[in-house]
Design goal:
382 residues; eight-stranded mixed sheet; 10 helices; 15 strands; single chain; Rossmann fold; alpha/beta
Length: 382
């Protein structure tokens, strides 16, 4: 059994429930993610099945190190050849906090030397430590190198290897996007966090590139989110293709060929609607979503109960709040008029804009979207 860690800032409870559903009863939320244990099959299944996780790493080693001598000694003992082929590339992301070894580049250099001695011809990328992160606290994925993370805190060193490769929101279906595309993992978290029952209608009146509706359709049809992509663990020397192929066949058998659930996605921008259709087609769920170009004022949800799940503009720039206050008020008015008995769930970055809805909302989770702190707010439409 190995120890694994899932990166999912703000979505810890949702990821924990996902892991419990696929058989990882020991999954426990921690700050920024979830820890669980398992074998190779468990690791492969988590990468293939989790809808809201960003990345899954394997704990390689953990030890005390308050000197470079001790760090070098322990680094040499790690079985780097379990994760790297001769001639492959590696990248180290090192963070040092409140430790005697505080120079991250120097720490990365020691690990690079240990790798070179264990596996011939391995090249360590130049950006070895403190790798660039995006606005959501996630690693950049511009490099195809195998990523290792090293975290030194209070002289305790934790070494992990990334099993996912490209962040797990990269499902493989979204090529066409709007101006501010919603990550697929966050879209799925919104759908799950809304409490949608996968049977009642779901409406997104500001759908952009369609991520919420597409993720809802994938959930309704029980399609594993990782079916169309590859993973970093497939490049490891101990990769067992038979296990992954078995898990994919198992996932395909669980999927539903069709769905009668009503999922509606609309936006006033015809350009993003074309993108949404293209994305839904690549995801294999175009026939499961009613996608239309129309403004919020034309929203007419089916008879409830149902769900409105959407990601409205946030108004983070000076001068945006005035026009957006009217937009939020309009959404609230139309929801009360035409969607009584529905539940509404939306991402919010502004309490004042929330108030313009004039709906009773409660917080479900907090995270970041495009570097902006946001909350999923949920409530009944009465």
């Amino acid at each position: 059994m190995r120890m694994f860690a899932v990166s999912a800032p703000g979505l810890e409870n949702i990821v924990t429930s996902e892991l419990h559903r696929i058989g990882n009863s020991d999954a426990m939320p921690v700050e920024g993610g979830v820890n669980f244990s398992g074998d190779l099959a468990g690791l492969y299944r988590a990468n293939l099945s989790l809808r809201t996780a960003s990345r899954i790493v394997v704990r390689v080693d953990e030890f005390h190190a308050d000197s470079f001598h001790e760090l070098e000694r322990r680094a040499k003992r790690i079985r780097w050849d379990e994760y790297l082929h001769p001639g492959s590339r590696a990248q180290f992301r090192v963070t040092c906090r409140k430790s005697r070894l505080y120079h991250s580049d120097a720490v990365a250099q020691r690990f690079s030397e240990a790798v070179a001695k264990r596996v011939k011809g391995v090249a360590v990328s130049a950006a070895a430590s403190e790798a660039v992160e995006n606005g959501d606290g996630e690693l950049s994925e511009s490099s195809p190198a195998q990523l290792f993370t090293v975290r030194l805190a209070h002289d305790n060193c934790v070494v992990s290897v990334d099993s996912s490769g490209a962040l797990l929101h990269r499902r493989g279906y979204r090529q066409a996007t709007g101006k501010a595309p919603l990550r697929e993992t966050l879209a799925a978290a919104m759908v799950i966090g809304s409490g949608w029952d996968s049977r009642s209608p779901l409406v997104d009146p500001m759908c952009g590139s369609g991520s919420i509706a597409i993720e809802a359709a994938l959930i309704a049809r029980r399609i594993a989110p990782g079916m169309r992509r590859s993973f970093s663990f497939q490049d490891w020397p101990n990769y067992d293709s038979a296990i992954l192929e078995y898990l994919k066949r198992e996932a395909a058998e669980l999927a539903i060929l069709g769905s009668n659930v009503v999922i509606m996605a609309s936006d006033r921008d015809d350009g993003v609607i074309k993108s949404a259709r293209s994305n839904a087609e690549r995801a294999g769920v175009l026939e499961n979503i009613q996608i239309e170009t129309k403004p919020i004022s034309a929203m007419r949800p089916p008879h409830g109960p149902g769900w409105i799940v959407t990601n409205p503009p946030y108004g983070v720039r000076v001068g945006d709040r005035g026009p957006l206050r009217n937009l939020y008020a309009q959404l609230g008015n139309i929801a009360r008029e035409r969607a009584k008995g529905y539940t509404i769930a939306l991402l919010s970055a502004d309490v004042m804009l929330e108030a313009s809805l004039r709906l009773s909302l409660a917080e479900v989770f907090r995270t970041r979207n495009g570097g902006i702190p946001v909350r999923l707010m949920k409530g009944p439409i009465l």
